[in-house]
Specification:
Layout lengths: L4 H15 L7 E2 H7 L6 H9 L26 E2 L11 H13 L5 E2 L5 E2 L2 H4 L7 H5 L16
Parallel strand pairs: 1-2
Antiparallel strand pairs: 3-4
Helix pairs in contact: 2-3
The chain binds a DNA duplex (13 and 13 nucleotides) through α1, α2, α3, β2 and α4.
GO molecular function: methyltransferase activity
Keywords: DNA damage, Methyltransferase, Transferase
Organism: Podospora australis
Length: 150
DNA sequence: AGGTTGACCACCG
DNA sequence: GCGGTGGCCAACC
């Protein structure tokens, strides 16, 4: 859990943004960082997910946190190389891969055992969060899709 | 109270 | 295209 109010709001923003990734899609830490207005801190996005609280260890005694492991689709965030971050133990990445496959995302295994997802097929990279668009943010009509066709 | 680590990334050689 | 570097900042020694 964050120690300072700013950190808490940052965590909050990150979790909200991650919740907007559609099922069956993936994005990157860096993109989430951009979406929340701090493009230079992809690293802290990873920190946020790492510290994602468990749903409710004891629902009766513990105040259920607004964001937790079960309502924030952390598995839909991977690194900019299209690889599921191995972080420290491969088991974690395997677990994440399984969660993605469960929602229809194809995960391929590289020569070195890296678990990869094809951005061309599953990538989700909006300029603005859907919720912000709904809130009235106006985007210029000069949209342009720079989709790299693999 | 100071130093290191890390679910990262863009940039340069 | 790969390896090193700098920036970022919360968590953890």
């Amino acid at each position: 859990m964050p120690r300072t109010p700013e950190a808490e709001s940052f965590f909050h923003a990150v979790y909200s943004a991650v919740q907007e990734i559609p099922p069956g899609k993936v994005t990157t830490y860096g993109h989430i960082a951009k979406l929340v207005g701090t493009p230079q801190r992809p690293r802290q996005v990873g920190v946020c997910l790492k510290h994602l609280p468990v749903p409710s260890a004891d629902e009766a005694t513990t105040p259920s946190p607004r964001f937790h492991h079960d309502n924030v689709p952390w598995q839909r965030v991977i690194n900019a190389k299209g690889i599921i971050s191995p972080r420290s133990q491969p088991s974690g990445a395997r677990n994440q891969a399984a969660a993605l496959e469960a929602e229809g995302v194809a995960v391929t295994t590289g020569a070195l055992g890296e678990l990869m997802v094809n951005f061309a097929e599953y990538g989700w990279f909006p300029r603005l969060l859907p919720s912000e668009v709904a809130a009235g943010a106006v985007l210029s009509s000069d949209e342009d899709e720079g989709e790299e066709s693999e």
